[in-house]
Amino acid sequence: MKPEIATTTTTTTTRETDNLNNNTEENMGGLTPRVSKKARTEHHEQDGIPIPDFHDSDHIQLTSHPDAFGVDPVPISWGHPDPRVRGPVICTVTHSSQRNAIGAHQGSYCIYTGLAVAANKLDPNYVPDLSLTSPVFPIGPHPAWSDPKKIGSIDPFGHIVTQCYGDWLEKGWDIRPTIAVTKAHIDLPECREGVASGRLIPDGKILLPSGQSVVAKAAIEPVWYLPEIARRFQTTETHLRHSIFRMTNGMYPELITRPDIKIFLPPIGGLTIYIWGDPATIPDEDIELTCRVHDECNGSDVFGSDICTCRPYLTHAIEECIKTAQRGGCGIVIYYRKEGRSLGEVTKYLVYNTRKRQEGGDSADRYFRCTEQVAGVQDTRFQALMPDPLHFLGVTKIHNFISMSDMKYNAIVSTGIQIVNRVEIPPEMVPEDAMVEITAKVFHGYNAGKAYQGIDEEELKKTKGREYGYDKNTTASDEDGKDQA
Ligand SMILES: [Zn+2]
């Protein structure tokens, strides 16, 4: 199934603009909301594509005024299988009167584009040259792309903007990809060690004798369809909008003032998909598929901190993905930027200190309570949106799922993806100090496999982590927690 490219189906509805002139020229402390007259008067030529309005970016628009932007938003019909009917996501600064999404591109990095403009290094009106950027291997389309219950937090056409909306781009529209698809060779010490010890056998194609492996990968920025996000969180769209508005100190007034704008590009981290093997086999249920969905833990993933099992789980998954690909299947690791259970690294370190300092030291029975004590909540990863990239790839069956999290397992299975086997982490890969984490998680219902069954209250209380002796005049170099003389 390929997306049908419609030629005349896109139509633009003119919103009632009678009240738009009332305060457009009203001066508000030098900030004047302005509406392009062009956008209101000219719509489309014969090809059905609206004429882009080019906003003068020197002109500040206050988004707290309901009529200040997006007076003529390009219609979006989320979930439509034809990208031309679905409509492009317009969230660039260029076409403010026709913008149909709240937020900005590039996630949290959008602030850096502001800095670049402030430093006179970036022309705010620059339109990117996308001519050589298209995906290096195809993804989709898949049936799930037209089901909002399966894809509501990413734009399934986000990697094929130039293909779907090429004639829009030619007309001067600034439409940005939210997904980029490329290839790489990756090199992990664990894989090198795996080759040296005979745990991994190089085949010269997927795994090279050096220990490098060959991957296809895709970077994805979130694009939220707010009605579906609300449904996944079992709340109303209004309550969702109000809650985000409130907890961001009003960063996005349009969440309140523009209930008709349903798309939101949130300023959060995105995700990366790594694929070993031929991505074309992913939708084939008869071909073995191994998968891990990993939430970022920079301290362990990159720097090898031994307080948790994150990097061991990740590298174990990568080895299993390589082996699956070598058997003719496919391996997928989805890497989510959800640092510190999406509470961030500062909160995470505060929790570490609380864990180590508390009465009785770091202990598995108080593992979750410490996070709650510091953050007010144990976990804000909420796996409800997590399966979307799997549906983007056309996954319907996972043969080997490498995770101990029931939350992840249940989230995936509840969207209709079948999981056959759950693969446990080999106990020898768990660092000693991470026993607190794994014991606490297993006691609270995580599934770590046979090696960690039967953890009772006594075991939970018994499992202690390393002591640093923070409050005994120690210094940062006192890494083994020994008292200093
Ligand atoms: Zn970790």
Automatic annotation (TrEMBL):
Region Disordered, annotated ranges: 1-31, 462-485
Transmembrane residue ranges: none
The protein's name: GTP cyclohydrolase II
InterPro entries in UniProt: GTP_CH_N (IPR022163), GTP_cyclohydro_II (IPR032677), RibA-like_sf (IPR036144)
Limits of the GTP cyclohydrolase N-terminal domain: 59-246
Biased composition (Low complexity): 7-27
Source domain of life: Eukaryota
Domain named GTP cyclohydrolase II: residues: 284-423
